[in-house]
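An instance noted here:
***
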Amino acid sequence: MRNLLIILAIVFCVDSAQAQFSATKDAQYMATLKAVANYKIEDAEIIKDIEKLRENRLFMERLQKMLDKLSNKRTKDSTNRKVLKILEKAGEDIYKLLD
């Protein structure tokens, strides 16, 4: 019985460590995505188009409506989950490309 408890404790610790590592990687990918997006938004090839969009009231209203559909709270909402997975995947791809 004692051996079983020790084995279960080890399995739990390994699973916990793997989950923490995975969460850390996801955070790294999101941070990479944000840093690269912030850097590339100033790219000489697109800066003028970005500035025009920022001044476009209709676009900004539409963008705000899209953002209103999201939440930063922990939720089971499928849209939030899908968006987060897309962002994590993009961050992972960029991370691996630049690393």
Observations:
- The longest helix spans residues 2-40.
- Residues 24-98 form one domain.
- The chain has one domain: 24-98.
